[in-house]
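Entry for the shared binder. Reason: the reviewer on the internal report wants the predicted structure included alongside the sequence.
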Amino acid sequence: MLDYTKQILIAQFEAALAMLNQCIESCPLDHWEDKIAQGTFRWVAYHTLFFVDLYLSRDEESFVERELNLLGGDERGSVVCVGLSKADTLTYLGICRQKMLETIPAVTEDSLRAPSGFEWYKITRGELHLVNIRHVQHHAGQLSAFLRRVVPECQDHRALPWAHTGWQ
């Protein structure tokens, strides 16, 4: 059952990241700074990836900030972060995907049942992986809806297709 659980987590994490990747790749540079809710397209993409990276860490203390985080900002603080360039965001997405592909296969039954490692999330580590996937999908949907409204090439439903499972 553990192997099957890991297989499902990887497949759904990859599908969520693939949909986020489609949005980032499809966003024309002249819309990269456009407003979405309380931030910009740039920030929403970065915010999503920052927390993917953070929550794939064992806990807050083991989170290793990358050079890209110095550019984009620390999303845990009260300072508004600006995000990254489109190219750097795509690079960060690849880093996060690779981290997921290394982290999920290493989980054990005990680690899935253990506390999340983040004091603000009073859930298990296994549930945190699901929350992380849901967070990616939430923001991918937000970015997709924005692109469908403002980018003519994205208005066709085939431009930003739903990823059922795995990296598309």
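Summary line for the report: Strands lie at 35-36, 39-40.
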